[in-house]
Amino acid sequence: MGMEEQILAARRELYDRYAGRLLAVCLRYSGDRSTAEDLMHDAFLKIYGAFDRFSYRGPGSLRAWMERITVNVALEWLRSRNKL
């Protein structure tokens, strides 16, 4: 398995493991499933792009870091909606 395939497999595993929890976070902020799914997708893109900035701080730190990014994506969406 090449490096690219390993990266894709790791991303898929992260998604499979955390998508339900992050979707719940997005639902809390958006109130509807379609928007929540879009927000979760945006959050995963940010997570994948920022992974080199994650630093392990013990059990639960990855989940907390991913949730914080997801909340920030949702808050940005709320702020942008209020400006319209």
Short account of what is shown:
With 84 residues, the chain is mostly helical. It contains 3 helices and no strands.
Q: Please give the radius of gyration in angstroms.
A: 14 Å
Count of DSSP E strands? 0
Structural class: mainly alpha
State the oligomer.
single chain
Give the overall average pLDDT: 95
Poorly predicted residue ranges? none
Helix content bin: over 70%
Give the overall shape: globular
Biggest sheet: strands, sense, closure?
Answer: none
Approximate strand percentage = under 5%
Number of helices: 3
Distance between the termini: 47 Å
Which labels suit this protein?
globular; 3 helices; mainly alpha; 0% strand; 82% helix; 84 residues
Task: Write up what this structure looks like.
- The chain has helices at 3-30, 33-50, 61-83.
- It is built from 3 helices and no strands.
- The N and C termini lie far apart (47 Å).
- The model has no long low-confidence stretch (mean pLDDT 95).
- It has 84 residues and is mainly α.
Any chance you could write out the topology, listing elements then pairs?
Blueprint: H1 3-30, H2 33-50, H3 61-83
